[in-house]
Design brief:
8% of the residues lie in helices and 22% in strands. The strands form seven sheets. A two-stranded antiparallel sheet has the order 1-2. It has a two-stranded antiparallel sheet with strand order 3-4. Among the domains are: 47 residues, Laminin; 32 residues, no CATH class. It is mainly β and 240 residues long.
Amino acid sequence: MPKGWYCNGTPDCEDKSDEPELCGIIDCQKGYFKCNNAKCVFKSYICDGEDDCGDGSDETLDEHACHAREKPCDDGHWRCPNPHATDVCIPLSKVCDDNLDCPAGADEGPLCDIDDYSGTKSTCSNGCVQTPRGPLCTCPKGESLSRNDSRTCVDTNECDPPGACTQLCHNIKGGKKVQKGYYCTCYPGYELDDDKTLCKAVIFLSTALRGFLLMLRMLLQQPAICMMTLFTGPTCLPRK
């Protein structure tokens, strides 16, 4: 470890032996932010959607006015709530499982112990799980909760927000038997790549260029005297 890392305010060793108590209180260098756990990170990392501090303090709503990016979680996942707006999604099975999976343990809380069988659960159109914010209705693959209410499942529009396809995206009804609830197409002059999401330009060869390539291929296959005319195209005569 470089000597400059000793007593620099950021624990670099796993046992924090490079930051003993005799170092005293060390402020971060200019251009750095001091996390709640005393770690120093670049100020540019604040509100970048990543938990760089490790305790979520660089992504807090109260201190930095950070807001999570509006990127939907995958099916069967739950978004870790603010004030640690890191856009972290965890599997629903890890919510209220007595393990801290979200930054600052936001996936656990007193409401995890409340079982609301007679309330929200009875009105969910599909299933329900308990969260630190109370009961949450869940939906099967390819569906999500309606924006008009928090209990009814509707087809998920995988084309919104944009980004699933490089050009044109078409949403279709998803479900357990459908791998993806959308398909991609391209504008004229483009075609889908092998991954079926990326559009690449179609190369149109002129008649002269096609003739030249054909003549070159014929020449490589067997030695010959080749010529190309406007009327006959590529013509090769065997060598004597």
